[in-house]
Every structure is written in structure tokens, then in C-alpha cells.
Amino acid sequence: MYDPLAQRxxxxxxxxxxxxxxxxxxxxxxxxxxAMPTAGSEVWAEGMGSCPGGIANLAIATSRLGLxxxxxxxxxxxxxxxxxxxxxxxxxxxxxxRSRRFEHWHSPVTVSMAVDRDRSMVTHGHPSPMSASEMxxxxxxxxxxxxxxxxxxxxxxxxxxxxxxxxxxxxxxLVFADVGWDPSGAWSQELLDQLAVCHAxxxxxxxxxxxxxxxxxxxxxxxxxxxxxVAVVTDGANGAMAIxxxxxxxxxxxxxRVNALDPTGAGDVFGAAFVLGTLCEWPxxxxxxxAGLCAALAVQQFGGSLAAPGWxxxxxxxxxxxxxxxxxxxxxxxxxxxxxxxDTLVPAVPVGAVRRAAATIARYADLGMAPQPPAQKE
Length: 378
Description:
Helix content: 25-40%
Number of strands: 14
Strand order of the largest sheet: 4-1-9-10-11-12-13-14
Distance between the termini: 49 Å
Structural class: alpha/beta
Largest sheet: 8 strands, mixed
Mean pLDDT: 89
Number of helices: 11
Shape: globular
Low-confidence stretches: 362-378
């Protein structure tokens, strides 16, 4: 596996690059549906895949980019739990030493149906039998943790009431945070007080404006930059903007043009790539460009962790862009200039570098494949 941090490692360094905690779902993804099924009807899908989802989307995204990743999560003792555990540990090289199996606990399941570049989901699950902090105890040494701000397990608690991410922070880890949609519509700014212990905050434009009370993504970015060293606001196909007060950099980078099929997990992929760029100490513009590229590669495929790119996919894209430069007009030239920094990275990527890996219960996936006609009888 290609290791982008190889030159920065030492025997005294942290055991992991990224440590995560959260809920793992079994995701079953149906694609190529002509329409959503109506009551009492049956619709056949052209493609289907199964993969670990939830926090596993982020764990797989970081691992495929070469970051040594450890995940703490609850797993059921059913076949779904077996499949998710095996896929994460054996196929995706995610460390599960802080995860636990629980008897008679049903693994959470999400069924996702993609229709006309949109998706609908049905989910079933139960609360984890144990909180993340109880399960983890003292987390392993890690360069970074990625968390979602929550009022349930807030960051920055008092000495006797700190959670696992606080412990990692006190042990030297950089804390990268995002935030979820607030279904209550309250968008309490008190949630942002947790940023006091964070290195970076990476909300999307809607979340950033809602939590800061600002009218534009740019104004929301400046408001967030008053609270955290590295502020990032993503804006879908429009790109991303960021301010890094530790280096004095400010940047805006547009997203590469792609035919987006499924946005599931794109935010996780962006976050994983931005963390990698930060740990590699790349300039802010390169970090945003790389994260935007990885997210753009992901949305061209169906289904969460199935779509997360590896270095092999990145190398394939860059070689194509570089080869076509000079023949694709101003846009192609712009891409070649913006991603020229990949020239120092991609040549070192071996031919066998990680690429997207399909995972299903049968160990194969037919996502994107056209259905085969039935065999004709003699």
C-alpha cells in the first residue's frame, strides 16, 4: 500500500494517523431504478452493492488514501456484523482493536435507492449498547481524530468529564470536526463553543451559514475562522474555501467538473483528503484542490464507501488530465496547472496502488453494470 506519510514516520511516532468512533451500518445500495416503487408494486434495479456505511464511510476513505486508520464501533454478532467487520479489517485494512462485538444486538441497516441522481433511504437500527468513550477508554496515540460536533458528547468538558476525543487531543492529536444537519432547526451557536479544542472545522455551506447566522458562505467562513485555526466551508459543485490562520493562507478552489451520480459519502471523502493534506503539510490551496478532487471522483460512483477513491484512482485521473492537456481547451489547461503538485506524488504511486474495492455479501458487486439478458432455452 502506498504510504504518503512514509517520510514523516519514526519509531517514536503515533501508532495511527487517524482515529474514529461512531456507528457502522450495513448499507445496501440499489441503482438504476426507473422510478421509486409505489405502494404494492415491485421495481427491478439494474445494479446492487453492499458495503459498510455510517462512520465506515470515513474510515474506508482515510484508509484508501494510505492513512493508518483505527475505528471504534459497536458490531452485532449477526451475519451483517460479520460482513462489516471482515470487510473493514481484511479488505480495507482498518484497525478494529478498539471496536467490540455485542451479543443479540442487531446490526444497523440502511437501504439506499438511487433514482435520477437522487437517493432515498430506509434505515433500521438500535442505540449502541455502550458509549464510544466507555468502549475506547484511553485512545491510542494518533496524529488526528475526526469528530462530529454533538450536544450529547461535547468536546472540551472538564477534567473529570472529558470524552475520548478530548483525551486524544490532550495526547497531541489534531482534532478535525464537522457537524450534522439540525432537524430541530435551532442551529444553536453554543455548539460551536466546542471548536476551542479543534484544529479544523469543515461544515458545508448550508450548515456554516445556519450555525453562524451569516447570509453567505464567505461571511460564514470568516465567522468560523474567528473560532478555530483552520476554517473550511464546502459548497458542493461550487468548490470549497478555507482560511488557515496557522500559516496565514486563504484559498478558494472550484470543484472539478464531473457527472455526479450519487453524493453519498462525498463529505467524508473530502474530509479524509483534507486531513491527509494537513498531515503532509501541503499548502492550503493544494489541500483544498486534493480534497475537492477526491470528492469529485467519489460522486461519479454509486454508494458511500464503495465510491471512495484510492491512490490508484487518483493516479489514473491525473495521467489522463496530463495527457490531454493542450487538447481540451482552457478548462483542461486550468486543471493541469491546478493539480501540477500531483506530479511529485503520483510517480511514486506503485502500479498496484489501492483502487476502489467493491464489497458485497457475495464479495462481488455489479454497480453500474447493465443487467444481462436471460439465457435462451434450447
